[in-house]
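Database export, one record per block. Field names are fixed; values are copied verbatim from the stored entry.
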Amino acid sequence: MDYISTQQAAENWGITLRRVQALLKANRINGAIRFGYSWMIPNDAEKPADGRRKSSADNTGKEGKR
């Protein structure tokens, strides 16, 4: 199995290096392995959904409430 670095994952997914590191710390990237101070991310790993935002389906019927 081929692995990529956190920097390569950030470039592939269009997010910051720090965000990739946060996802790794939260165990949100399947198959990632800690190797000393580095991470080994599977080449075919998919970018996890952003849990910081609600989907538009969650906001249905809540118009006007803040």
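Remark 1: The beta strands are 3-4, 33-35, 38-42.
Remark 2: The mean pLDDT is 86.
End of record.
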